[in-house]
Amino acid sequence: MAHKGRIVFAAALAATMGLGLSACDSGDDEADAKASPTASASASTSSEPTSESPDSGDDGGTPVDGDVTAPGTELKVGDKAVLPFEYTSKKKGTIAVTVTAIEKGAESDMEAFGDKAKGMTPYYIKMKVENVGGTDLSYASLKLDGVLEGGSSTGIVLIGGLPDKCKNETAPRDFTTKGASYETCSLTATKTDPVTAASFDEGDAYSDSPVVWTN
Questions:
Q1: Read out DSSP for 59-105?
Q2: 0.90 exceeded by the pTM?
Q3: Is 79 left (phi over 0), alpha (psi -120 to 50) or beta?
Q4: Strands 31-32 and 74-76
Q5: Is the alpha carbon torsion for 90, 185, 18, 119 positive or negative?
Q6: Are 166 and 185 in contact (CB under 8 A)?
Q7: How confident is the model at residue 156 (pLDDT cuts 50, 70, 90)?
Q8: Looking at the DSSP assignment, which residues form a beta bridge with residue 91?
Q9: 2-13 pLDDT, tens per residue?
Q10: Longest C-alpha distance within the chain, in Å?
Q11: Does the pLDDT value for residue 61 go beyond 90?
Q12: How far is the C-alpha of 45 from the C-alpha of 28, rounded, in Å?
């Protein structure tokens, strides 16, 4: 599908929460919205082709603590993946991610994104993140991507979350020791097929062969 333009816009909630959305536009116009001083965000459309969920021969079982889950592993919601993680050049380590739910929201939940989000259905990818390596990963942020039924990506990039429905939390200050954990949520959305899976594709080893959790 050809991407004809860029859509950049923002919506402010009652709190100081920034939201942005990027999607394919069938028109040639480029829309820009001025954000308030306390809430702003933007995102641009990627021209890269969507990736499909990997076909893996793994049995999808939960890996043993300390083992790194292989790229391309397919898991079920509720399973844990142990993954190398780099947030900045100074924030590196190993984390365990357990996707606890992939929940469908209502179209009305997307009202904060404005008219461009009409017809989009949000999905909430909820997860638990654990510090396995014991390195300092305080204030790091993790986001999982939604995968459509059939294996393609949603093609929509959302920045931020919906505080009442899906709040994207950063790691707490004490996320610096082995066993420390927190819960967070990644927001994704679709205008076409339902979201049936979530993927981790950070780092060179996983960019082409992500770890995928399915319902």
A1: --PPPPTTPPPPTT-EEETT-EEEEEEEEETTEEEEEEEEEEEEEE-
A2: no
A3: beta
A4: unpaired
A5: positive
A6: yes
A7: confident
A8: 88
A9: 322 222 223 323
A10: 51
A11: no
A12: 13
